[in-house]
Every structure is written in structure tokens, then in C-alpha cells.
Amino acid sequence: MKKIILSALVLFFCSLLLKAQKDYKVVFDLTSGDSLSQQTAIRWVTEVSKADPNAQVEVVMFGKGLPLVIKDKSVMADAVTNLATNKNVSFKVCAVAMANQKVDKSQLLPGVQTVPDGIYEIVSKQHEGWGYIKVAH
Amino acid sequence: MKKIILSALVLFFCSLLLKAQKDYKVVFDLTSGDSLSQQTAIRWVTEVSKADPNAQVEVVMFGKGLPLVIKDKSVMADAVTNLATNKNVSFKVCAVAMANQKVDKSQLLPGVQTVPDGIYEIVSKQHEGWGYIKVAH
Amino acid sequence: MKKIILSALVLFFCSLLLKAQKDYKVVFDLTSGDSLSQQTAIRWVTEVSKADPNAQVEVVMFGKGLPLVIKDKSVMADAVTNLATNKNVSFKVCAVAMANQKVDKSQLLPGVQTVPDGIYEIVSKQHEGWGYIKVAH
After folding, report:
1. Which of A98, B2, C74, C102 has its C-alpha lying 20 to 30 A from C68's C-alpha?
2. DSSP state letter for B24
3. pTM of this prediction?
4. Per-residue pLDDT tens over the stretch B8-37
């Protein structure tokens, strides 16, 4: 009996690991703020969502990547605001970077979230089986 | 008896997971098209193959990364054509990027493959235990 | 009895896999040598270490990323030397890149290590469950 429970438990953990590996989940790492990087990030998020509406997409911004979601700096403000209403898409800004660069939450576009540590957020997603893509051009 | 089968099954799945983590498999993400990026990608692929002839290497191109494998744009055409004959090396272009940029299959160097979605290709490889390296300089 | 041993073995392997996914471990991939890239790498390493003193951080340099740890080229020499004394932080340079660029071990800052193959080092860390972040700006 104990052996069955043990085996079932093990099978459960393994299936969790395998399951995590099948879905389309991707975290984009954005650390550049130029217009082209902003456009690139939005194009990729949009295309992943179009390819699979159930895909889970997260854009994490730290370092110099904050302009995409700052009200008076974003060149893709409408797209960000719009995509952020999609329950499968999220934009998360690093609070450490915000503090360093004196960006207040009130300056963020609607729907944009903050995380205490952008690098930890990305590393955690990778650990949970999400794919990782660095935004660059 | 059932328990043995169950255990064996579990062991099999786990060993698959562990096995996937031991080989030298790497997917390069190329989204820049300048000459130096092209040269960098080819140098890294070449060096990995030299370090371990059994290493599996894949270069996925999307965004602005297509020139490396386009006949009249590549500055590394011979190297790409040559490396693509190696069964452990593959070059895969995103079909969405090709359509967006009006690149036809006939313009690709010999041996270059296409994938429906370059980002999904990369994410899938990561899920299968391949390492990921963003090409940049 | 055999079944118990088998199950225990399986559970052990799975728990290893799960355990590897919980800690804060991150490998930074640095392939740019400009001052801003050097500063960015050091800022991120410093911030991760500050956020969690037990976090394990490794910076792997290959391609054009070597200047950060070369005595007469680094703009962050003091920070590198200082961080390298932290047992949870390491700087590892690719020996292939060193040979290609005629950099001798004697030119490296104190505490900086070498690895035979920088790409393999990064891929191995990813396989062991470390998060991966490409340094870029």
C-alpha cells in the first residue's frame, strides 16, 4: 500500500514537470528602451498571442527596458494598454529599476504590474518551465 | 506486479528528463542581421561542433535575423551551406517573419529549413532540455 | 523490497529536479565589451546578491565579453575583484575566446576563473536548473 502511494506521489510530481513542459509559455526579457526594441517586444507578444490564444506571455522589464510601459515615454502605449487587458498577457516592471530611475507607479500605463525583482521573476518563470526569449534587434 | 510497472514507468519518465539534461544541445536565437551578428553566430556554431562533434546545434532566426540565410544578403553563405550538411546542425527560419518580410523559400540558402513559429521552436527546444544562447555582440 | 528501493530512487531523482528549481541561481551571459555592458553586468550581479545573499550568481564571458575581467580593459576592475571574493559569485571566462583573442591568464583580474568552453558552461548551468539572463542594454 505504502509503495502504491509512494509511486503515485512520484508519478504526480513527474507529470507536473512534464506538463509544465508542454504548454506555450514564454517570458520576454526587455532591457532596452529604444523605439525599435519597444516595437519588437510588442510585435512578438502580439504574434505569439495570435498563433495560440491560450499561450501565456509575460514581458519583464528591468535595466533600461522601462520606457515601453511609462506613460510619456512609450511609443507603443495603446498596444500595451490593450494587450494588458488580455488575461494571458502581462507586463511586469522591476521595482528595483523603478526606484533607481525614480519612476513612480503612477507613471505606468494601465494594467502594467510591478515585481520586487525583475531578474528573480524571469528566473522563477524559467524554473516553472516557461521558455525565455531576450528581446534584441 | 502493478507496482513494478508503475515504478518502471516513473523511472522511465524521470530518466528521460535527466537524460535530456546531459547531452550538449544548444539553440541559438538570432534576431540581428548585421554582418558581425552573422559572423558571430557562425563562429559559435562552428566552435560548439568542433568542441563536441555529437553536440546538437540549432540556429533559429526570426525578427531581423533572417539575412544570415538569405542568398543575396548572407555574408556567411558558404559556411551556412556547409554547416547545414552536418546532421547535428540545423538552421531554421520563422515562417511568420518570412511572410512579414516577403522572403520566399527559394531565396533561402540550400539546407536551410523553415518552422511555422520561430519563438515556439525556441521555447520547445528549451522545454526539451536544450540550452539557450542569445546571439549578440 | 526491490520496489521500495526503486521508488525511493525515483523519488530521490525527482526531488533533486524539483529542488534545483527552487533556489535563486542565475547565470549571466556577457558577450559585449563596451563600458555600459560592463557596468550593467556588475549592477545586476550586485543587485541579485543584495536581494538574496544566498543567491548563486555566475557571469560567463565569451565572444566579445572578455574586457570586463581583463586588467587593463575593465572599467569595473575593483567591483569584479571584490565580488569574486564572494563564495556565491563567480566570473568565468571561455578559454577558447581567450586563445582566439590572445588573452593570457595573467591578464585576468584576481579571482576570475576560466572554463574550457563558455557556451557549454552556460548550457550546463541551464540544465542544472539555473536561470539564464543575457546581458544587454
Report:
1. A98
2. -
3. 0.87
4. 666 666 565 555 546 999 999 999 999 999
CA atoms within 13 A on the CB side of C51: 24
CA distance C112 to C82: 11
Cβ A126 vs Cβ C131: under 8 Å: yes
CA distance to partner chain A, nearest, from residue B127 (Å): 5
What does the buried/exposed string (b/e) look like for B85-102 if buried means 16 or more CB atoms within 10 Å of the residue's CB? eeebbbbbbbbbbbeeee
Of C14, C22, C132, the CB nearest to A126: C132
pLDDT in the model for residue B83: 98
Cβ-based contacts of A13 with chain B (< 8 Å): none
The verdict on a CB contact (< 8 Å) between A119 and C21 is no
Cα(A11)–Cα(C88) distance, rounded to whole angstroms? 34
Interface mutation target, options C1, C15, C21, chain A, most CBs of A under 10 Å: C21
Q: How far is A3 from chain C (nearest CA, A)?
A: 6
Segment C15-19 shows an average pLDDT of 57
Tell me which residue of A64, A60, A58, A74 sits closest to A100, measured CA to CA.
A64
For residues A52 and A25, give the distance between their C-alpha atoms in angstroms, rounded to a whole number: 10
Please state, in angstroms and rounded to a whole number, the distance separating the CA atoms of residues A137 and B63.
Answer: 7
| A137, closest residue in chain B (CA to CA) | B32
* Contact at CB, B64 and A134, closer than 8 angstroms: no
The pLDDT tens digits of the residues spanning B47-96 come to 999 999 999 999 999 999 999 999 999 999 999 999 999 999 999 999 99
CA dist C113 and C1 (Å) reads: 47
Residues whose CB falls within 8 Å of the CB of residue A107, separated by 6 or more in sequence, listed in order? A70, A71, A72
Task: Give DSSP secondary structure letters for A15-56.
Answer: HHHHHHTTS-EEEEEE---SHHHHHHHHHHHHHHHHH-TT-E
DSSP assignment of A55-79 equals -EEEEEE-TT-GGGGBTTT-S-HHH
Extract the C-alpha cell encoding B136.
Answer: 549578440
Nearest CB to C132: which of B10, B51, B132? B132
- The C-alpha cell at A31 is 532591457
